[in-house]
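Hi L.,

As promised, TraB/GumN family protein:
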Amino acid sequence: MTPRPLAMLAACLLAVTCASPVLAQTPPPEPVGEDGELKTSADDPSLQSLEAIVVSGRQPGPGLWKVTRGGNVMWILGTQSPLPKRMDWDTAQVERRLSESQELLLPASVSLDADVGFFKGLLLLPSLLKARKNPDEKTLSDIIPPAQYARWQVLKQRYIGSDKGVEEMRPLFAAMELYGKAINRSGLTLDSVISETVTKLARRHDVKTTDPKVVIKIENPKVLLKEFQRTTLDDTACFERTLSRIEGDLGLMTTRANAWAQGDVEALRDLQARNTQWAACRDAFTNSALARKAGITDMEARVRKSWLDAAEAALARNRSTFALLSTADLLSPDGYLAALAAKGYMVEEP
């Protein structure tokens, strides 16, 4: 158990960066149809791939995006989650560019500054664990509409089993638990394979690592935890959309994971869209009165600004910088690279 319970709480509640493997990387959006609705295998028979084959063995991964201004360059690797569990990633290209660089820029994240020591932090662990549960000792069956709960029961039996503890969790946390188990059973992994590997390579070549963060100062974490335990979240939309993804889109996740492993950028582009459960899960907490009281607002914009500011600073001081960004942020028409291009940086795709 980590001795930093407040960091864990921030991670899981913000759904921006999390100690849990479920939210360790920014999840890419799911494909949508012409009407703007989320596609599932029921909508398109070609997407029915729950038994899709997950690639394994030596895989190249995608090429690198290139951002330049003057004589300085930033090489960017797109991250992806989930990824094939048994993939052996060929990192030769990444290591070569990283070894030539003066700095590694990681994706921006969120952290709490609660000013608590190690032992005081351990004393908060019971409160942290209790915060994952529904207020007033309610269970999922008390909160979730009957039709949704019936779907939950089927998926829970398939991927989790008879665990009764998950029934006491808030819908948001129960959904994340189910999602992680379903991904694992599909031959995929939510582990931070890319960032962990690249960070190790940076250490090997003595490359400075920059980890841009949005820091939220919490004056009284114990009071915040107790208040959260009494707070009801509007997280049923997060729960329902997570069920839908597991029911119909595991095949799409496999297709995307394979595309990343095989370096197929065009396939990754074709699979990008915006409608997922992640926004609903994030908003369940960040739109609450408690989050606003704690200063946890506009997190997406603040995280974006944090990374872009760090990227511009790195490009100004280094002849070569290596960076990580989610493929969604790289490929989106209004994503991070689009913002750099609008400021006059030259952007080249792999």
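Residues 5-348 form one domain.

Thanks again for sending the construct details.

K.
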